[in-house]
Amino acid sequence: MAWNLTASGTQAMDNSNPVTMAFDCNGADLLVVAVCVSAGSVYDKIPTYNSVSMTDCGEGLVSSGSESNVYIFYLVNPSSGSNTISLENTATKNVTFYASAWTGVDTSDPLDTAASDHDVSADPSVTITTSAAGKLILDICMDGYINSFSGNSHTLINSQDHGSQNTGNQYTTLDGSSGITLSWTCGSDDWAMIVAAFNQVHLPNRDNLLTMDYSKDGRPFVRVGTNASVLLDGMDVSYEGRPFWGPEGGEEEEEERKRIYLVL
Predict the structure, then answer these.
(1) Average pLDDT, the chain
(2) Which of 19, 109, 110, 119 is the most buried (most CB within 10 A)?
(3) Any idea where the domains of the chain sit in the sequence?
(4) Number of helical (H) and strand (E) elements in the chain, helices listed first
Protein backbone atom coordinates (compact mmCIF):
# COMPACT_ATOMS: atom_id res chain seq x y z
CA MET A 1 0.00 0.00 0.00
CA ALA A 2 1.47 3.32 -1.06
CA TRP A 3 1.91 6.12 1.42
CA ASN A 4 -0.71 8.86 1.14
CA LEU A 5 -0.65 12.24 2.86
CA THR A 6 -4.28 12.85 3.77
CA ALA A 7 -3.90 16.14 5.66
CA SER A 8 -1.30 18.56 6.96
CA GLY A 9 -1.41 21.64 9.14
CA THR A 10 0.84 24.12 10.90
CA GLN A 11 0.36 25.85 14.23
CA ALA A 12 2.01 29.27 14.24
CA MET A 13 4.44 30.19 17.03
CA ASP A 14 2.40 30.65 20.18
CA ASN A 15 3.06 30.96 23.93
CA SER A 16 -0.47 30.18 25.11
CA ASN A 17 -1.21 27.42 27.60
CA PRO A 18 -2.09 25.04 26.10
CA VAL A 19 -1.11 25.55 22.48
CA THR A 20 -3.91 24.01 20.43
CA MET A 21 -4.89 23.40 16.81
CA ALA A 22 -7.99 21.80 15.29
CA PHE A 23 -7.01 19.04 12.87
CA ASP A 24 -8.89 16.43 10.80
CA CYS A 25 -6.83 13.35 9.87
CA ASN A 26 -9.21 12.53 6.98
CA GLY A 27 -9.22 8.79 7.51
CA ALA A 28 -5.50 8.42 8.18
CA ASP A 29 -4.00 5.62 10.26
CA LEU A 30 -0.93 7.63 11.33
CA LEU A 31 -0.69 11.13 12.79
CA VAL A 32 2.75 12.73 13.16
CA VAL A 33 3.26 15.94 15.14
CA ALA A 34 6.66 17.61 15.01
CA VAL A 35 7.21 20.18 17.78
CA CYS A 36 9.63 23.12 17.90
CA VAL A 37 10.30 25.13 21.05
CA SER A 38 12.18 28.41 21.10
CA ALA A 39 13.92 27.99 24.45
CA GLY A 40 17.25 26.86 25.78
CA SER A 41 15.90 24.58 28.51
CA VAL A 42 14.40 21.10 28.48
CA TYR A 43 10.76 21.02 27.46
CA ASP A 44 9.16 17.63 28.18
CA LYS A 45 5.47 18.10 27.40
CA ILE A 46 3.67 15.46 25.33
CA PRO A 47 1.05 16.49 22.76
CA THR A 48 -2.39 14.88 22.72
CA TYR A 49 -4.91 14.34 19.95
CA ASN A 50 -8.52 14.18 21.07
CA SER A 51 -7.07 13.82 24.61
CA VAL A 52 -5.02 10.72 23.63
CA SER A 53 -1.32 11.05 24.40
CA MET A 54 1.07 10.63 21.50
CA THR A 55 4.31 8.59 21.48
CA ASP A 56 7.81 10.02 21.16
CA CYS A 57 9.80 8.74 18.16
CA GLY A 58 12.63 7.68 20.48
CA GLU A 59 14.96 10.62 20.11
CA GLY A 60 13.35 12.69 22.86
CA LEU A 61 14.10 16.40 22.85
CA VAL A 62 17.01 17.41 20.64
CA SER A 63 18.40 20.81 21.57
CA SER A 64 21.04 23.07 20.09
CA GLY A 65 21.64 24.32 23.62
CA SER A 66 20.46 27.87 23.10
CA GLU A 67 17.34 28.50 21.03
CA SER A 68 16.44 25.44 18.91
CA ASN A 69 14.59 22.47 20.44
CA VAL A 70 12.68 19.79 18.52
CA TYR A 71 10.64 16.61 19.10
CA ILE A 72 8.67 14.19 16.87
CA PHE A 73 5.59 12.40 18.20
CA TYR A 74 3.20 9.98 16.51
CA LEU A 75 -0.16 8.28 17.04
CA VAL A 76 -1.62 5.28 15.19
CA ASN A 77 -5.31 5.00 14.41
CA PRO A 78 -6.13 8.58 15.41
CA SER A 79 -9.75 9.52 16.08
CA SER A 80 -11.87 10.34 13.06
CA GLY A 81 -13.26 13.78 12.36
CA SER A 82 -11.91 17.14 13.44
CA ASN A 83 -10.22 16.98 16.85
CA THR A 84 -7.78 19.08 18.83
CA ILE A 85 -4.03 18.72 18.97
CA SER A 86 -3.08 20.13 22.37
CA LEU A 87 0.32 20.78 23.95
CA GLU A 88 0.64 21.87 27.56
CA ASN A 89 2.71 25.03 27.91
CA THR A 90 2.72 26.03 31.56
CA ALA A 91 6.07 27.80 31.10
CA THR A 92 4.55 29.91 28.29
CA LYS A 93 7.44 29.18 25.91
CA ASN A 94 7.23 29.99 22.22
CA VAL A 95 5.99 26.80 20.56
CA THR A 96 5.12 25.81 17.00
CA PHE A 97 4.24 22.42 15.58
CA TYR A 98 3.59 20.66 12.28
CA ALA A 99 0.95 17.97 11.89
CA SER A 100 0.70 15.46 9.05
CA ALA A 101 -1.67 12.53 8.62
CA TRP A 102 -0.93 9.43 6.53
CA THR A 103 -2.36 6.16 5.32
CA GLY A 104 -0.09 3.18 4.69
CA VAL A 105 1.50 2.60 8.11
CA ASP A 106 1.91 -0.79 9.77
CA THR A 107 -0.25 -0.01 12.80
CA SER A 108 1.10 -3.00 14.74
CA ASP A 109 4.72 -1.88 14.28
CA PRO A 110 4.67 1.76 13.16
CA LEU A 111 8.16 3.08 13.93
CA ASP A 112 11.24 1.77 12.13
CA THR A 113 13.99 4.05 13.44
CA ALA A 114 14.95 7.67 14.09
CA ALA A 115 18.10 9.79 14.05
CA SER A 116 19.02 13.30 15.15
CA ASP A 117 21.76 15.87 15.39
CA HIS A 118 22.45 19.45 16.47
CA ASP A 119 25.26 21.87 15.77
CA VAL A 120 26.26 25.44 15.07
CA SER A 121 26.83 25.48 11.32
CA ALA A 122 25.24 26.20 7.97
CA ASP A 123 22.89 23.82 6.12
CA PRO A 124 21.54 21.43 8.78
CA SER A 125 21.36 17.76 7.76
CA VAL A 126 20.77 14.33 9.29
CA THR A 127 21.38 10.93 7.69
CA ILE A 128 19.14 8.00 8.58
CA THR A 129 19.48 4.32 7.63
CA THR A 130 16.23 2.37 7.50
CA SER A 131 15.79 -1.39 7.88
CA ALA A 132 14.40 -1.72 4.34
CA ALA A 133 12.95 0.26 1.46
CA GLY A 134 9.38 1.56 1.50
CA LYS A 135 9.54 3.65 4.67
CA LEU A 136 7.96 7.05 5.24
CA ILE A 137 10.86 9.28 6.28
CA LEU A 138 10.17 12.75 7.62
CA ASP A 139 11.97 15.38 9.64
CA ILE A 140 11.70 18.49 11.75
CA CYS A 141 14.35 21.19 11.76
CA MET A 142 14.68 24.38 13.80
CA ASP A 143 17.46 26.84 13.04
CA GLY A 144 18.42 30.14 14.65
CA TYR A 145 19.50 31.75 11.38
CA ILE A 146 17.73 35.08 10.89
CA ASN A 147 16.71 34.55 7.24
CA SER A 148 14.32 31.92 5.87
CA PHE A 149 15.43 28.52 4.62
CA SER A 150 16.40 28.93 0.97
CA GLY A 151 15.98 25.26 0.11
CA ASN A 152 15.41 21.72 1.32
CA SER A 153 16.37 18.28 0.04
CA HIS A 154 13.02 16.48 -0.26
CA THR A 155 9.26 17.11 -0.46
CA LEU A 156 8.29 20.10 1.65
CA ILE A 157 5.29 19.82 3.96
CA ASN A 158 5.67 23.35 5.30
CA SER A 159 8.18 25.81 6.72
CA GLN A 160 8.00 29.06 8.67
CA ASP A 161 10.19 32.11 9.22
CA HIS A 162 9.69 33.22 12.83
CA GLY A 163 12.01 36.22 12.58
CA SER A 164 14.75 34.97 14.88
CA GLN A 165 14.33 31.25 14.00
CA ASN A 166 13.25 29.09 11.07
CA THR A 167 11.37 25.81 11.26
CA GLY A 168 10.50 23.27 8.61
CA ASN A 169 9.08 19.82 7.96
CA GLN A 170 9.70 17.62 4.89
CA TYR A 171 9.37 13.96 3.87
CA THR A 172 10.45 11.30 1.39
CA THR A 173 9.55 7.70 0.57
CA LEU A 174 12.80 7.02 -1.29
CA ASP A 175 14.84 3.97 -0.31
CA GLY A 176 16.76 4.72 2.88
CA SER A 177 18.15 1.22 3.46
CA SER A 178 21.64 2.36 2.39
CA GLY A 179 21.31 5.69 4.19
CA ILE A 180 19.51 8.83 3.09
CA THR A 181 20.21 12.43 4.10
CA LEU A 182 17.57 15.07 4.68
CA SER A 183 18.85 18.64 4.71
CA TRP A 184 17.96 22.33 4.79
CA THR A 185 19.77 25.28 3.23
CA CYS A 186 20.52 28.37 5.32
CA GLY A 187 23.38 30.36 6.82
CA SER A 188 25.38 29.39 9.87
CA ASP A 189 23.68 29.38 13.28
CA ASP A 190 22.63 26.88 15.93
CA TRP A 191 20.17 24.18 14.84
CA ALA A 192 18.48 20.98 15.99
CA MET A 193 16.96 18.30 13.75
CA ILE A 194 15.25 14.89 13.98
CA VAL A 195 14.45 12.40 11.20
CA ALA A 196 12.00 9.54 11.83
CA ALA A 197 11.16 6.56 9.59
CA PHE A 198 7.83 4.70 9.74
CA ASN A 199 7.02 1.17 8.59
CA GLN A 200 4.73 0.55 5.65
CA VAL A 201 1.92 -1.99 5.94
CA HIS A 202 2.55 -5.14 3.90
CA LEU A 203 -0.01 -6.11 1.27
CA PRO A 204 -0.31 -9.49 -0.45
CA ASN A 205 2.33 -10.28 -3.02
CA ARG A 206 1.17 -12.61 -5.77
CA ASP A 207 4.56 -14.34 -5.66
CA ASN A 208 3.80 -15.35 -2.06
CA LEU A 209 0.37 -16.89 -2.62
CA LEU A 210 -0.29 -20.53 -1.83
CA THR A 211 -2.83 -22.56 -3.77
CA MET A 212 -5.32 -24.62 -1.75
CA ASP A 213 -7.07 -27.51 -3.46
CA TYR A 214 -9.86 -29.56 -1.86
CA SER A 215 -9.64 -33.27 -2.58
CA LYS A 216 -12.67 -35.51 -3.07
CA ASP A 217 -12.54 -36.96 0.44
CA GLY A 218 -12.89 -33.52 1.93
CA ARG A 219 -9.31 -33.22 3.17
CA PRO A 220 -7.87 -29.91 2.01
CA PHE A 221 -4.23 -29.53 1.25
CA VAL A 222 -2.01 -26.61 0.36
CA ARG A 223 0.04 -26.94 -2.77
CA VAL A 224 3.44 -25.34 -2.29
CA GLY A 225 4.90 -24.87 -5.74
CA THR A 226 4.36 -27.90 -8.00
CA ASN A 227 6.02 -30.76 -6.14
CA ALA A 228 4.86 -30.54 -2.54
CA SER A 229 1.64 -30.32 -0.58
CA VAL A 230 0.70 -30.00 3.08
CA LEU A 231 -2.42 -31.63 4.51
CA LEU A 232 -4.60 -29.36 6.60
CA ASP A 233 -6.61 -31.54 8.96
CA GLY A 234 -9.52 -30.37 11.05
CA MET A 235 -10.77 -27.75 8.60
CA ASP A 236 -14.49 -27.34 7.98
CA VAL A 237 -14.72 -27.65 4.23
CA SER A 238 -18.07 -26.29 3.12
CA TYR A 239 -19.61 -24.30 0.33
CA GLU A 240 -22.92 -22.46 0.60
CA GLY A 241 -23.71 -24.27 3.83
CA ARG A 242 -23.03 -27.84 2.61
CA PRO A 243 -19.94 -29.97 2.07
CA PHE A 244 -18.15 -29.87 -1.24
CA TRP A 245 -18.49 -33.64 -1.58
CA GLY A 246 -20.96 -36.12 -0.13
CA PRO A 247 -24.13 -38.03 -0.80
CA GLU A 248 -27.19 -36.12 -1.91
CA GLY A 249 -30.44 -37.88 -2.72
CA GLY A 250 -28.72 -41.25 -2.48
CA GLU A 251 -26.27 -40.47 -5.26
CA GLU A 252 -22.61 -39.49 -5.04
CA GLU A 253 -21.95 -35.97 -6.26
CA GLU A 254 -19.35 -35.43 -8.88
CA GLU A 255 -16.03 -34.24 -7.59
CA GLU A 256 -15.81 -30.45 -7.29
CA ARG A 257 -12.51 -28.65 -7.18
CA LYS A 258 -12.18 -25.25 -5.54
CA ARG A 259 -9.08 -23.11 -5.43
CA ILE A 260 -8.38 -20.54 -2.71
CA TYR A 261 -5.42 -18.20 -2.43
CA LEU A 262 -3.88 -17.94 1.00
CA VAL A 263 -1.76 -14.92 1.89
CA LEU A 264 1.50 -15.68 3.67
Answers:
(1) 82
(2) 19
(3) 4-198, 206-263
(4) 0, 26
